[in-house]
Amino acid sequence: MAEENAAQTAETPEATEAAPARKGGMLKVLIIVAVAMIGEAAMFFFLGIGSGSGNPELAAAEDQARQEDGEKQDEEQDSLAEVEIHTFNVTNNTAAADAIIHISFKLYALVAVDQKSEFDKAANEENKARVREAVERIARGATVEDLNDPAAGTLKRLLREEINKVLKQSYIIEVVLSDFKTMQQ
68 and 89 in one domain? Predict the structure, then answer.
């Protein structure tokens, strides 16, 4: 029995030493987390992220910048002309594994007003077949995600880039898809 008590007293100092070590480890973790949170808060404060309502002068400047951007966009829209390219009906066999997707849409290009007649002639007369082929190639190769995207961002970007490449000049500022419909078969 004396041996058991001696063994227990021998383990007790080690156990008491391990408990502060665990507390010290937890304390270190808590300090690291606190420092990280303070650093993140300082970064938000100094970079001004999320501080629009805290500084009235900054909020007024941001509002004025947004208003000027809106006016610039209105001016850009006024300086753009809409040119119809063609109505397309395309079949896409690659978008869905076990289905065929029929796509139909009207394609318009927004170009600078002063380039409207030049673009119309280049796209609808001189390079008519190549432009249509490029559009059909992109529609046939579109993924399901591209076709289901409500804004059709990727599809519009690819169409704009490819048509400008065919025409060997950057006429198109933006592409507009009208009456866009897909039907899976």
Answer: no
Overall pTM > 0.70: no
Q: Are residues 68 and 97 in the same domain?
A: no
Q: Under a CB-based contact definition with an 8 Å cutoff, are residues 140 and 91 in contact?
A: yes
How distant is the alpha carbon of residue 76 from its chain centre? 22
Last residue of a domain, one of 75, 105, 128: 75
Q: Which of 75, 91, 120 is the last residue of a domain?
A: 75
pLDDT tens for the chain, 185 residues: list them: 545 555 555 555 555 555 556 667 788 888 998 888 887 877 666 666 554 445 566 666 666 777 766 665 555 557 899 999 999 999 998 877 888 999 999 999 999 999 999 999 999 999 999 999 999 999 999 998 988 888 899 999 999 999 999 999 999 999 999 999 999 88
Taking the CB of residue 118, how many other CB atoms lie within 10 A of it?
14
Say yes or no: 62 and 126 in one domain.
no
